[in-house]
């Protein structure tokens, strides 16, 4: 039975423009730009050079550490450049640019298991790892790490089908068009974690998606249960979803595994199914292109590395007066300064806005209404955190638990003064990280100096 989580808001879902539009396959562009960082953790090291021939599914990026995931070519063709290119998370990042030969040649590295159902847990995890699967809802945490660290601790596997951000409908369309992949991925996850069932949490504004999955569950007698949830943002946050489904609360600074839960996105689950049945790594992504600035909003599946400009062209371009482009949803997405960024594994939406949707004010002033406190799902006090961050009060920021902020934007949404709360919290987090790094460096320097002094005395 669905539980309630603390805080949250009820923004207009704005999904009508695309929730009844089938996923369209975008023809592969003439050139893809594949960033070497599409996951939390160290960036990948490019293992191809200019002039190399590559094929679909071929590994082109070697993981930079344990919390990392390999990256693969999404088209066949020739490596045109390995250089920094604009990145959706800000700045530039090393990317592999591939000139598409339009042959769609699949790599010999892509090998389907002879019998997926006969695979051991270790073999399945290794396939997931080699497929470069990450949290495709936007968190981009490497999936094999989450599985490996959760085995033996997790008793509840949850699939995140909440899709609570306004505008985004890619997961909803996947439920309607690919329910077999979702349920198939759930079955494999149940086997990997050794649980008797998997729970899919879906907000009740997607009833036809719930029905489609329940039909497949009944046909296959799969160990999966679909749990309808009341609509409330940010229900798609994994800590909130855990509480909504199990009633358990993740402790401050903790992870779902601390309460016996593991959470996976709908399209991550599909990627697991495809990797285990076909051997194909993550080379494509479903993206919702919507907003008042888009001529014809659509749900598009495209190769990883497709320029955002190509997606916009496929939707008829942008309307006159478009003033903002966002990668992600309107609550947690990041505004972009260019359409030259490319689609990554965590890109769920590209939104463009025009007309009179700009609601910011020049000099916002807090009126101490406390609404931000009442909607914060993490029990934080945004009005005080804003003051501390704006004045550089790092110790106070730490005491206010700013690192627990999930940057969901609920406080910014509800604020009648239009304070730039979420933006300031990102700045505050960086201030705290810088202070911690400086303190660590100072402590190490002090320790080294003490050791040198001790050695000098001994001499």
Q: Can you offer a commentary on this structure?
A:
By secondary structure, the protein is α/β, with parallel strands linked by helices. Helices cover 32% and strands 19% of the residues. The protein is built from 13 helices and 17 strands. It has helices spanning 121-130, 143-150, 170-177, 179-193, 207-220, 238-246, 266-278, 308-314, 371-375, 382-390, 394-399, 410-414, 421-458; strands spanning 23-25, 31-35, 45-46, 53-54, 59-62, 71-72, 77-86, 92-100, 156-161, 198-203, 224-229, 261-265, 284-290, 298-303, 324-327, 334-336, 349-353. The strands form four sheets. It has a six-stranded mixed beta sheet with strand order 1-14-13-17-15-16. A four-stranded antiparallel beta sheet has the order 2-8-7-4, with no helix packed on it. Helix 1 (121-130) crosses helix 4, helix 3 (170-177) packs parallel to helix 5 and helix 4 packs across helix 7 (266-278). The chain starts with 22 loop residues before the first strand and ends with a helix. The model has no long low-confidence stretch (mean pLDDT 94).
List its salient traits:
459 residues, four-stranded antiparallel β-sheet, 32% helix, 13 helices, six-stranded mixed β-sheet, alpha/beta
């Amino acid at each position: 039975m669905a539980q309630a989580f603390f805080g949250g808001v009820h923004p207009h879902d704005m999904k009508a423009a695309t929730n009844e539009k089938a996923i369209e396959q975008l023809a592969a562009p003439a050139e893809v730009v594949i960033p070497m960082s599409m996951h939390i953790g160290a960036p990948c090291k490019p293992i191809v050079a200019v002039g190399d021939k590559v094929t679909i599914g071929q590994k082109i990026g070697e993981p930079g550490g344990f919390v990392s995931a390999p990256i693969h070519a999404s088209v066949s063709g020739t490596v045109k450049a390995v250089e920094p290119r604009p990145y959706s998370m800000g700045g530039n990042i090393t990317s592999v640019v591939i000139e598409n030969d339009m042959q769609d040649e699949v790599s010999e590295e892509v090998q389907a298991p002879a019998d997926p159902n006969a695979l051991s847990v270790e073999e399945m995890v290794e396939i997931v790892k080699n497929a470069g699967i990450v949290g495709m809802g936007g968190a981009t945490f490497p999936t094999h790490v989450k599985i490996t660290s959760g085995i033996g601790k997790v008793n509840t596997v949850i699939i995140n089908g909440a899709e609570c951000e306004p505008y985004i409908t890619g997961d909803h369309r996947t439920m309607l068009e690919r329910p077999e992949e979702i349920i198939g991925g759930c079955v494999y996850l149940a086997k990997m974690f050794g649980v008797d069932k998997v729970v899919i949490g879906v907000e009740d504004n997607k009833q036809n998606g719930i029905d489609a999955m329940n039909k497949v569950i009944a046909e296959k007698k799969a160990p999966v249960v679909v749990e309808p949830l009341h609509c409330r943002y940010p229900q798609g946050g994994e800590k909130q979803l855990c509480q909504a489904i199990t009633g358990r609360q993740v402790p401050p600074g903790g992870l779902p595994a601390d309460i016996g839960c593991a959470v996976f996105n709908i399209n991550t689950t599909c990627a697991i199914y495809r990797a285990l049945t076909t051997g194909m790594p993550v080379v494509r992504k479903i993206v919702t292109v919507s907003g008042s600035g888009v001529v014809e909003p659509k749900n598009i599946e495209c190769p990883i590395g497709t320029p955002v400009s190509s997606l916009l062209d496929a939707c008829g371009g942008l309307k006159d007066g478009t003033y903002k482009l966002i990668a992600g949803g309107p609550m947690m997405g990041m505004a972009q300064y260019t359409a030259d960024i490319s689609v990554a594994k965590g890109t769920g939406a590209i939104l463009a806005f025009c007309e009179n949707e700009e609601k910011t004010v020049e000099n916002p002033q807090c009126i101490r209404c406390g609404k931000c406190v009442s909607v914060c799902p993490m029990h934080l006090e945004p009005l005080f955190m804003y003051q501390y961050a704006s004045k550089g009060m790092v110790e106070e920021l730490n005491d206010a638990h700013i690192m627990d902020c999930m940057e969901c934007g609920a406080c910014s949404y509800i604020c009648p003064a239009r304070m730039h709360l979420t933006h300031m919290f990102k700045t505050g987090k960086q201030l705290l990280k810088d202070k911690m790094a400086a303190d660590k460096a100072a402590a190490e320097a002090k320790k080294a100096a003490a050791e040198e002094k001790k050695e000098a005395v001994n001499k």
